[in-house]
Specification:
- This protein is α+β, with helices and mostly antiparallel strands and 155 residues long.
- The chain has 2 domains: 82 residues, PH-domain like (Roll); 60 residues.
- Helix content is 49%, strand content 23%.
- A hairpin with a 3-residue loop joins strand 6 and strand 7.
- Helix 1 packs across helix 3 and helix 2 crosses helix 3.
- The longest helix is centred in the middle third of the chain and has 21 residues.
Length: 155
């Protein structure tokens, strides 16, 4: 790996939509129970329309209660850059660039169900990388570079 190898990850609208649809269907199932799914499986047009309306209403409820839409609005322009020595963050919509995080200072990188990748620093700070297309790959890349750099520094 050369010093110029930089990986850039951007938030994804597709990931947001998948999360919203999945959350909405789960919410619809919790609110309406098995009636929702039996309505979708029936051949009765009225039951089918009622079930589909239930999903739409549950989607709106999910977006409002869990503030998913606001989270997406806040995070939709996020960009993370992984270089040989640092993990950088910036908000491209606001043209704000934050200080880069030194890879040697990373304590752990973990997948957070539903939310994305959580990066914990040795000083106690934690950062969430949300709405990324392939969080497992992001976690693996950060861990690989951080571990290599940390083992190099400990020699």
């Amino acid at each position: 790996m050369s010093a110029t190898d930089t990986i850039i990850w951007r938030t994804s609208g597709k990931v947001f939509l998948k999360r919203a649809v999945f959350g909405s269907v789960i919410m619809a199932g919790m609110i309406n129970g098995f009636g929702l799914f039996s309505g979708l499986m029936s051949f009765d047009i009225a039951s089918l329309l009622a079930s589909l309306a239930s999903i739409v209403i549950s989607a709106a409820f999910y977006m409002l209660v869990f503030d998913e839409w606001q989270n997406w609005n806040r995070r939709r322009n996020e960009e993370w850059r992984l270089s040989k020595f640092t993990l950088g963050f910036r908000d491209t919509g606001l043209s704000i660039e934050y200080d880069d995080l030194q890879l040697v200072d990373i304590k752990s990188v973990s997948l957070s169900f539903w939310l994305g990748v959580r990066v914990r620093m040795t000083d106690g700070r934690a950062f969430m990388m949300s709405y990324l297309p392939n969080p497992k790959q992001v976690q693996a890349e950060i861990e690989q570079r951080a571990t290599a750099l940390q083992s190099e520094a400990s020699r």
